[in-house]
Each structure stands twice: as C-alpha cells, then as structure tokens.
Amino acid sequence: MTLNELKQYNGTNGTKAYIAYKGVVYDVTQSDFWQNGDHEGIHTAGEDLTEALAHAPHGEEVFKRFPVVGKLEENEASVNTKKELNNKKQSQNNNNQQKFQDKPKKDTPKSLKIQIKSLYKQYHLHSMTVHFPIALHLFAAVINVLFLLNPKESYEVIVFYSLFIATIMGGVAMVPGILSWWVNYDFSTAKAFVVKLIVSVITFILGVIAINIYYANPASIYEYSFDGIVYHFIVLITGVNVIILGYYGGKITWGNRTKRVADDSLEAVNIIKEKYEDSTLGSMENSISILIGGAAGTGINTLEKILIEALKKSGYYVFSTKEFMSRVRGGSNTALIRISNTPIYAPCWKVDISIAMDKLALEHMHNRWRKDTIVLADESLSNNGENITTLPIEESAKKFGNIQYANSYIMGVVFSLLQLDNKNLLESISTHFKTDDDNIKVAELAFKDGKKLQKLFSKKISSEDSETINKLHLMNGTTASGFGFLVGGCNMVTSYPMSPSTGVLNFMASMSKQFDIALEQSEDEIASLHMVLGGWYGGARAMTTTSGGGFALMGEGLSLSGMTETPAVIYLAQRPGPATGLPTRSEQGDLNMAIYSGHGPFPRVVLAPGNLQECIEYGYLAFELADKYQIPVVFLSDQYLADSISMIEDIDFSSYEQKRYITKTSKEYQRYENTDDGISPRGIPDFGEGLICSVGDEHDQRGQITEDYAIREQMVAKRARKNDEILKNTIAPEIRGEGKIAIVGWGSTKEIIKEVLDSLDNDDLVQVHFAWVYPLAQEQLQVLKKYDFIVVVENNADGAFANQLKLHDIQVDKQILQSNGFNFFVDQLSEMIKDTLKEQL
Amino acid sequence: MSQLFARENVDIAWCSGCGNFGILKLIKEVLEELSVEKKNTVIVSGIGQAAKTPYYIDTNIFGVLHGRALPVATALKLSNTNLTVIAEGGDGDMYGEGGNHLIHTIRRDVNIVHIVHNNMVYGLTKGQASPTSQKGFVTGVQVNGVVNEPFNPLAVALSLQAGFVSRVNIGDISHAKEVLKKAFSHKGYALIDILQPCVTFNKTNTYSWFKENSYKLDVSYDSSDFDLALKKAFEFIPMPLGVLYQDTSRDNHFQKHILGENPKALYSVQHDIQKLQDLFNGY
Q1: How far apart are CA A837 and CA A254, in angstroms?
Q2: In the predicted model, is pLDDT for residue A262 greater than 50?
Q3: Burial class (CB in 10 A: 0-12, 13-18, 19+), A725
Q4: Which residues make Cβ contacts (< 8 Å) with residue B207, sequence separation at least 6?
Q5: In whole angstroms, what is the distance from residue A642 CA to residue A271 CA?
Q6: Nearest Cβ partner of A540 from B104, B266, B279?
Q7: Does residue B7 sit within a domain?
Q8: B280–A473 CB contact, under 8 Å
Q9: Are A575 and A586 in contact (CB under 8 A)?
Q10: Residue in A483, A528, A534 nearest the CB of B76
C-alpha cells in the first residue's frame, strides 16, 4: 500500500492500527501498546516508523509479534523524506546514493536546519544531558537537608561536588536544549519554553554563585553568615528548579499528545449552559439584537424583510437570520435581526429585545434572554413572574379587522424603541403592502404606544451615514450563490426540490425568464445529476441543486462524471442528517460525503464559501473549475448561509473573465487524448468534424471501451494527473492575525469566528479559514505547522474537516463541534473558545 | 450500404445469432438512408448487451450507467436541439432500472428516439428475468418461474400520452426499418420496442416464438385512434407489430417551452452581464 493508504489505518474510530517498518506493514491493532492507535503518546498508527525506531527504547525485535498485512510502496515523497533525513546512511545502496548526489544543493539555512534536526533526532542530546543536572541538583538538595540536620563533613563534600557537576552539566544541557528549541519548535514562545529558559539560566547562575562562595569562603557552609545562608538556599532552590524544569520538559514532549482528539466524545454543547447566561461580547455592545418569535404562516418572513429594509434605510448595517420548524403552519419560529453602525455579519444567542407573537414563542425564546433583555408580548399573555412588558398587539390589530396586522404593530414598536424616525418604516411598509394602507395606520399607532417603553431600553447606537449604507446590497446566501452561478455562465439547471437548496432552484427559475437558462425539474436526484452530465456533454453549462439526502443518490452520477470526464456543478446546501434529520435547520455534516461519494477514485473539487462575497466568487469558480478540469465540483452551503441576510458591497460582474474550454474538433479527434497534464481537450457534438465518444467503461484515447490492462493503467494515471494539476491551483486558506493559536474553520462559520476573534481582541489568536476544502495542497497546509495550538471549529458531530487536516499530518489540538440544528452564535462561540484556550499549553 | 456508420476495428461482444446484430444493422442502415449526419447524431446508452450497440456505430456516443440513458439524452437534446438524439438499451435497463426515468421522459415528450431491445431476459448478467419476462419463465434466480405481471411498455407509454408508440420484431427487418424511419420523423418522444431473441439465455422466446406470436398491423389500421391503440397494447398472444399510435400534431413542444421558439445551442450562450449587473444592483 502507499503511504497515503497507510495513513487511514490510524487505529481511531474503530479502524485498524497499522504501522510500517522497513517497507513492511504490520497490524498492531491488538497490541496493548497501541490502544486507539496511540503509542506512548509519542507515535500514532498509520505511519512509517522506520526512522523513528532509531531513537526508541527497543529494537526491531518488537515487530516479530505482529502480523504482516502488506508492503509499503516507496513513493516519491517517502524517497525525498529519506533523502533529507538520512545523510548519515550514505553506505546504502547505489540507487539512493545516486539520487542524493543528483539532488541540487538547496539554500544553506534550510538544509542546515534539517541536518541539525536529523542529527538531533538521532542523538537526542538535550534529553540525554539534561538528566544529569536534574538528578544531581536534586541529590544535592536532599543531602543538603541531611547536612542541615546533622552537619557532617562528608555530607557537605557530597553536596558540593554534586552541585559542581550539576551546574556544569546544566550549562552543557542548555546547548542542545536551545538547539532543539530552534529546530523542533521554531523558538516557540509558549509558556513551557519561556519557563525552562528562565529557570535554567537562573539555576546555572545560582550554581556558579554557590560554587564561588564555596571556594572563597568554605567555612561559611557551617555558619549562619550571609554567605552560608545564600549557599544553602541556592542548593535547596536549585533542587526545586530542576523539578520545574523536568515538569515542563515532559510537558513539551508529551503535553498535548496525551489527549487524543479522537477520544473526545462530542461534548454536549448546551447553549443553554448556565455559565453563558450573561455572556456578552464586545461587538454586542456595539449592536442591537432583536428576536421576533411566532408561528409559521403568520408573516414573520415578511416582517423580517420589511423591518430590515427599513432599518437599512435608517442608516444601519443589518444582519438577519431565521430558524424555523419543518412545517408550513403553526409551531414556533424566530427571526433575529442585528443592527450596528459597523458592518455586522453574524448572529448572537442572547438578545437585547425579544418580541413574542404568541405564548409558544414566549416559551421558545426563553433561553435567549439575559437579565436585561426587554421582552415584549401581547397583553393577553400571562406574566409568569417573568419580566415581560405587555402591549396591546392583538387588540390593535383587531381594531383594523385582521390579526395579521400584528406584524405591522410590532414593526412600529421596534422603531419606537430604537428611537428611529418612523418615516423609513412607513415607506418600506407601503412599498410592500401597496394596496393596504391600514398597515401604515397600525404601525403609526404602535409607534405611539412604543414611546412609553423608550425608557426601558437605553441602548442607543448612532447610525452610519445613509449614503454609505445605501450603496450596500441586502441579500441572502441563496441569492448571492445564484448570481455567482450566473456570472459563471450557468445556462442549464436540472433539480429535484429539497430544503434548503430549493431557494437557488427558484432563483434560477425566475432568472430563466430573463436569461437563456434551460431549466427543468427532474423526477429524482439520480436524474438531476445525469441531466447535468447530458447537458455538459452537449455543450451546456449545467448544474443541479440539492441537499445531503439528494446528494446521496448522486453517487454513481459523480462516478460517471469522473470516468467520462464530463463536468458537473452541484450546489449542496447542507442540513442536519443523517436521513431526514432536521430538514429546516443547519449543519456542516456532509463534507465527508461531498469528498468521498462516488465509486472509484477520480478528481473533484469541493468548495465552501463563507459569506456573500464568496458565494458569488466561488459560484463563478465552480463553473470555471468544472469546465477546465472536466470534473465534478461540489459547492457546499448550508441552511444558515443560504437563509441569512446580510450586506454586500458592489460587485463588478464584468471583471469576471468569461473563459470557455470547449475545443472545435477535427476528424481525427480523440476525446481522451493522453496529454501531459491529464486534461484532454473537450469537444462537443456538432462543433467541428470529430465524433465525441464518452463511455463509463474504461476506454482508450478514442473513447472505445477496452479491457486492455496497459491502457487501463494509462487512463488511471491520466485522470490522476488531473488531480496533480488541480493541486497546483488550489486556493489557500485566508489567515487573519499573527498569533500562535489558530482557530480553523471552513464554510459558513467564517464571519461568526471573525466577529468572535475581533471581539476577544487577543493577539495570540489567528483565524485560518478555508473556502477551498478539497483537495488540500500539502504546501498550503505547512503554514499551520507554525502554530502552537490548533483549534478546529465545525458545525457538525464528526469533525470531518479536522480529519482532513490530520490526514495531511497537521496536529489538531482541540475541536469545537456542534450538532444541534443551530449555527454557532458569537457569544456562545466566544465562551467555547475561551474555555478551550484554558486547556492549552 | 450501411458502411457510412460502420465503426472499424471493433470486437463485437455478442453471441453468434444474437438479435442485436440485426438491430445494429437496422440502425446503421436507417441512419444512412435518412441521410442523418453522423457528427450531429448522438446515441446514448446505459448498460447491457443491447447498450453496447452504439459502441459499434461510427457516431457520437455517450455510454452511461444502467438505466440512466433517458435523463442524459433529455438534457443533451436541450443543450443542442440540432442534434439527433437516440436513447438505446435493453428491457432491463429501460423498463427496470430506468423505470422512473421512462415515466417522466414520456411525460416530457422530449424529441428523442427511444430504442428498446426487448428480449425478455437479462443477457449481460447471464439469465435473470427482466421486467418483460413472461410468467412461468424459469431462471437461476426465478427458480419457480416468474410470477410477477410482465411490464407492458406500450400500455404504460400510452397511458402517459406518448405521441409515438410502436413495436417491431427484428426477425422482420424491413418492417422494422419502416417503423424506425417513422420514429425519426416524429416531433416528440418516439418509442420503438424491438422484440429480439437472446439465443443463449432465453430458450423460450426464440426467433420462431416471436414470429408465431406476433402479427403486423396492416395498412387499414388507424394509428391516430388512441382508444384502439390502448386496446392493442393489451393484446399479448399474438402481439401486434407496427406503429400502434402516433399523434402527428406533436411539435417539439418540450424544447420550445423550455428554450423558446428559436433555441440557441447552449454552448454559444453568453449571458448579458450588464443585465445581470443591473439586477444585482437592484438589491
């Protein structure tokens, strides 16, 4: 097997634990020393441990116990690694030597570091030498206690010579220590290193002082003189120092690794946790959050829409999100609106104002209140000792003859509470309810009623100037993604409706009235994707929209796309699974399926935009990549991103280059021409003289089916080369900050994490965010290795993205997971991050 | 004759005597006689012995997965209505695995020619019953004989208002040619169910069995009579052959509805970016 295959057998989550040594793969699953794939906190299964054995406390006789399960293939990567780490082994066979000699000289500092690193690993000098000062200082301290109790000369001699050698060896041990600090830890300024540095220097200096006292004034040892006291103090304190040094030394070596991330069960993340009761974030001071709850079908969506438009007109940055039950009528849904005078893109759990349209809403929103939250409800709802302010909502609505007017009443109250100019609201209402101006009257009435409540709500946020705000556009992720696909040239959509992806289908359907888009609802998701393939084969730029359950049916279609090298774009808006799950809620649970669905290996790309801007950019990119590399591209969104409304600046669509990769064919055209980069020029029927032969069987360059094993190998290699091309063009993660603790996320958590980190204002924290989630290029991940502590935040229960990082040899120290149907909220996530950081080194 | 669409250097995988040879010849000859341009023709097929037929024809081909030829063919037709699109496969592929697609493709009335090789058995997978196998047919899986009601493709197609429904016997190739040519000229979905024997795995429904148990609809038959066609569709022993039903008023409404009266080939479509910009700016 290859090194990559070996990595899968890491012994976690029920997989077997395999290790490789000198090209042979052993199954160590049954071994007590490899429980859960962890060996002494030092090694993990799924690795080639040939190098590591050199500094193990045992030899290769240990492998005799284990069954052999295969051979490890030498791949290029492992050969290079060996080259770098085995300078000493020049006595190996000619082949290796030849490669080593042929390799061009790298720039010196880099190779010097690696050489020292390899030497260090071979002889682990610090570990060897540091035990002398530790043992001897301790010994000296202990014997010194004996001396103080019973001042015999022999004790004092022992103490002195121990101290003497300890001090010298301490100095000696510091040299490889600093070397190791450089080559292994990049001069990390984590606590353990700083402590060790300071304490070891102090210990050395104290030792020297004590030695000088002994030589200068040996008699003082027996006296209560200043010198004597200092001497004894030093002997004792250096004993304590080395305990500290030993502790932190051990922590550096094993500290983070004892807690295997795989062992962490999903902590019950209870956003109703008591300790988050009064959590606020700096950013929340600067924004006002309004939560409105009511039954489905009572107009909450309309209320939200009008209110945010009116608030935008009033000069505020606006963000809103909804959570709703899987039903068309009844139940309890909430809409959250946040306004601020600085751009705002994320939701909060605890709110400033909470408005309940019915009793159920009051109960449903209970957990969202702080002690100072203003809770408004109709006067008919009983005041169970809660601090609820009642208003004649229903009464006022009924005055005008329809309970639905309650919505307009609520809008009026909000504007009044926020002390805003009502005219903006009235304009928005009349734009929306063109024929019914009773809504205006209700809103005006509410505005008056609301004035009485103004004293309850003192938070006031100045508005931004209207000109700036008016330049911004309000839309949700669905709309932005749709625009992205259109600017990417989408001209065919074939979908089966499935929440929460249907929004894009609807958007494209309405666009099909103004643009040349062939749009058809398919009979099932199998047909959806196959139609996409038929479309691209014929020259169209086709896509389908679906959610996890529908994507599950597309497995074979993906495989067909991979084998026939027919492009495909799939919009996958995630919701919690498995199976039906929580149909109207949000999760990032389908990453593994997006990456691995479809039998047989073939290249693909998975994208996961994190905000409106990225929805557009990556929507465009999806089509570009599909066309260029002739692969399926999965565009991952989720209910939260699709439905949340925020603001976006102007986009210049003309700046998006309209590239097309169809080739006009000649009579000799071969669809699967074996090119260097693996990408065969793609022709279509009726465009040139050639014939386009695509088949799902293995095929030759012309597209004729074949079982010839040599051609098969050629084609497999060709398709794999496409993956290499893709890897050269991946988009790196976005990094914000220069600290040493990385908060890693992907997709829709972007703006939430951003607001949390901005508010925590901790220079140690860095946000690393991925919008291109598969395939990951090893070089781009190297940047993660410089961080001391890596936390991966995901809105799922399986930590799929963290697992991708681990597959690429990135150490994930902690995961923050959540799988309860909700997206993360800034206040709640900030508490989770703070808790997590307490556990780090 | 039949050289234009002949593909060279192909190793035909069928048993000698297979009905597929006849169908292969049939298609090549009809395409040539209709002067269909090979570079504008696409045959989409799924999986099965029948589905291999296009691999032996010199034209554009898209070999997809079992049962999935119809949705691929549908979208392919939309992507470029200038193409002559054929979906071809066996009774297992088209009536079994692809059953759902059959139903909805007929509802859409996409302008494709749907050629189904009906040999009442699964040949590629070595002899299991197919949706059209007769009751009592014994196989390695249906060890006590088939008990399920055989699928009736013509009745199903008619019930979904298919505009061209026909059945032929490959044993009578000239009659089959006549019918197939009519299918090509129909402006909508056209089904041709071609009875053929599987000489290796179906010893019941042989060439002679088909000949004895079918009859040709003669010139007096009115193929525009829907009720009559429905009645004919339920006749089994003997089975009527020919065009059971044709609605000549069909006029490619599916593609017109989706693409408009003057559809562009989608590869040449470029969206009006300014219009898109204006729409975005309106938010």
Answers
A1: 18
A2: no
A3: middle
A4: B19, B171, B197
A5: 23
A6: B266
A7: no
A8: yes
A9: yes
A10: A534
A494 forms beta bridges with: A520
Nearest to A696 among B64, B78, B101 (CB): B64
Amino acid A223: pLDDT = 83
Ranges A20-34, A365-379, A487-501, most confident: A487-501
Residue A24 sits at the chain B interface (C-beta within 8 Å) = no
Q: Which of B62, B71, B82 sits opposite A522 (nearest CB)?
A: B71
Q: Considering only residues 582 to 601 of chain A, which have any Cβ-Cβ distance to chain B shorter than 8 Å?
A: none
Q: Are A588 and A749 in contact (CB under 8 A)?
A: yes
Please report residues of A whose CB lies closer than 8 A to that of B110: none
In-domain check, residue B1: no
Contacts of B88 in chain A (CB under 8 A): none
Spatial separation of the C-alpha atoms in residues A781 and A51, rounded to whole Å: 23
Q: Report residue B183 CA to chain centroid gap.
A: 10
Identify the CA nearest to B186 among candidates B165, B156, B217: B165
Report yes or no on B9 lying in a domain: no
d(CA A85, CA A88): 8
Percentage of chain A exceeding pLDDT 90: 65
pLDDT of residue A95: 42
Q: Strand pairing partners for A334?
A: A293, A323
Q: Number of structural domains, chain B?
A: 1
Higher pLDDT, A816 or A48: A816
Q: At what angle do helices B99-108 and B69-79 cross, to 10 degrees?
A: 30
Of all residues in chain B, what percent carry a pLDDT higher than 90?
Answer: 95
pTM: 0.78
Q: What is the CA radius of gyration of chain B?
A: 20
What is the number of residues in chain B? 283
Residue A840's pLDDT is: 64
DSSP characters for A363-376?
Answer: HHTGGGEEEEEEEE
Give the count of beta carbons closer than 10 Å to the beta carbon of residue A185: 14
Structure tokens at A27: 């199954």
Closest to A755 in 3D by CA, of A281, A269, A270: A281
Residue A380 pLDDT class (50, 70, 90 cuts): confident
Asked if the model's pLDDT at residue A268 lies above 50, the reply is no
What pLDDT does B233 receive?
98
Q: Which of B70, B124, B271, B278 to mutate to test the interface with A (most CBs of A within 10 A)?
A: B271
Phi-psi region of A666 (alpha: psi -120 to 50; beta: other; left: phi over 0): beta
User: Between A and B, how many CB-CB pairs are < 8 A?
Assistant: 200
Rounded to a whole number, what is the distance in Å from the CA of A432 to chain B's nearest CA?
Answer: 14
Name residue A319's beta-bridge partners: A338
Give the gap in angstroms from C-alpha B189 to the nearest C-alpha of chain A.
16
Q: What are the structure tokens assigned to A184, written together?
A: 């292994």
User: What's the rounded Cα separation, in Å, for the pair B19 and B29?
Assistant: 16
Note the pLDDT tens digit of each residue in A518-541.
999 999 999 999 999 999 999 999
Interacting residues of A638 by C-beta distance below 8 A, sequence separation 6+: A500, A573, A574, A575, A586, A587, A588, A747, A748, A795, A823
Q: Are B81 and B259 in contact (CB under 8 A)?
A: yes
Q: Identify whether B10 is part of a domain.
A: no
More confident residue, A189 or B175: B175
Mean pLDDT to the nearest integer, A693-718: 97
- Dump pLDDT digits (tens) for A656-691: 999 999 999 999 999 999 999 999 999 999 999 999
Q: Which of A443, A432, A623, A440 is nearest to A535 (CA)?
A: A623
- Can you give the residue range of the structural domain that contains B113? 20-281
Which of A:433-492 have CB within 8 Å of B? Answer: 473-475, 479, 483, 486-487, 489, 491-492
Please state, in angstroms and rounded to a whole number, the distance separating the CA atoms of residues A208 and A190: 28
Q: What CATH number is attached to the domain comprising B164?
A: 3.40.50.970
